[in-house]
Amino acid sequence: MSAVLDFPVKPEARPYLDAFDKGLSRNGDAAPRWLAQSRRRGMTRFAELGFPTRRSESWRYLDLQPLQQKPLLPAGPEPGKHETAARTQLAGLELPGHGPRLVILDGVFAPALSRIGDLPTGVWLGATHRAIAEREDLFREVAEETPGDPAHPFAALNAAFFADGFVLDIGPGIGLDEPIEIVHLASGNDPRSYHTRSLVRLGEGSRATILETYAGEGRYWRNDVVAVRLAARAALNRAVLVEESAEAVHLAELEATVGADARFSGFALLLGGGTVRHEASVRMAGEGAECHLDGAFVVDRTEEANIVTNVDHQVPHGTTRELIKGVAAGRAHGAFQGKITVREGAQKVDAHQLSRNLILGGRAVIDTKPELEIYADDVKCAHGASVGELDEAALFYLRTRGIPDAEARHMLIEGFLREPVEEIADPALREHLLRRLARRLAKLEE
Predict the structure, then answer these.
(1) Which has the closest alpha carbon to 331: 309, 373, 359?
(2) 264 burial via Cβ count (<10 Å: 0-12, 13-18, 19+)
(3) Domain spans of the chain, in order of start
(4) CA distances, 219 to each of 17, 47, 73, 222, 277 (Å)
(5) C-alpha–C-alpha distance, residues 338 and 355, integer Å
(6) What is the reported pTM?
(7) In whole angstroms, what is the distance from residue 206 CA to residue 157 CA?
(8) pLDDT one-digit tens code per residue, 126-160
(9) CA distances from 328 to 16, 241, 435 (A)
């Protein structure tokens, strides 16, 4: 493939192009023709774009130089090889549910660790590779989408290399009461990259809750892409918990389309990982659509975490609410970049965006950049941002009540971060995330 490219290949893309030519992380001989063509388009696009730099507005707060200088290439799938160690990881996550659970280990579906069970008629849940074989009609449209936007080069790389992922398809009028757990584990056996591509599709009037957890050991790069399609009056609650290893790079992209009177609630809790970027792009395509994007991040030592959101109101009567909170300690760097666009003719849109952040110590940094771009004149939109330190008056009050300084600080930090978590409707899921948050804060190095 590389011999026929009619443009200069970016130097940092060359190792990945060579790996693609060798067929790493792909089952090229068994893939349908449309998928093979889609992979080639993705690789060509990434070879042309290369890695984003800080000159790119949406990547200005993240340092990708270590990954660029020491490539983490994909490797061929090794199903079942590290399942024993993965069971220990899985147990340590203390997941709350008793419903369906799909586990992806080192980028590949792990049936021995999963428990999908009996699902209602009209519900399909399985691995991406199975969907390609059995439900081509369901997955093909999403799989063939190769981003052309220079701000999304890793989605193009994902299109070239994805080995697996999950697909959830729920027919019209079906409601799932038990949350579905999707667990992404990295065994840490070898430094490598894992590329997963997934799809969630809800039919008219259906509803579901998903908890996606990302965890691992060692040095690795997780490059995850999820597409969400919500038909009219559908409702999806999706919570993401990131507890990657200290050496990990975690880059995740969500791309959602929300239909008329449908509701998408997305929540991200970023608690671990050397370099973490969680991006959500939501297209409000139907009148009366509702979107909630909440989240929180905690970083210390030299960690980096970015939350990036982009909500595009294309039709009237849409509603968006965003609340993002961050805490940074040590020499860590956190950032939030959020953009809400209201297109011409998208009247009666009600959109609010708020970013609040705490700096602990003099070396940590948090950047925040909320943004509104409005082309309609009958809207109700607002945004706000703040970065500050712990309230000394509140600390003094707690100390006068006999609470030690360290405990008082911990109480204030946890209280500050609880607000977006408590917006989660499912009680068991909410309590699980609060426990994981408390566990992380207990280890916070200020």
Answers:
(1) 359
(2) buried
(3) 79-441
(4) 21, 24, 12, 10, 16
(5) 9
(6) 0.95
(7) 32
(8) 999 999 999 888 888 777 776 667 789 999 999 99
(9) 33, 18, 19
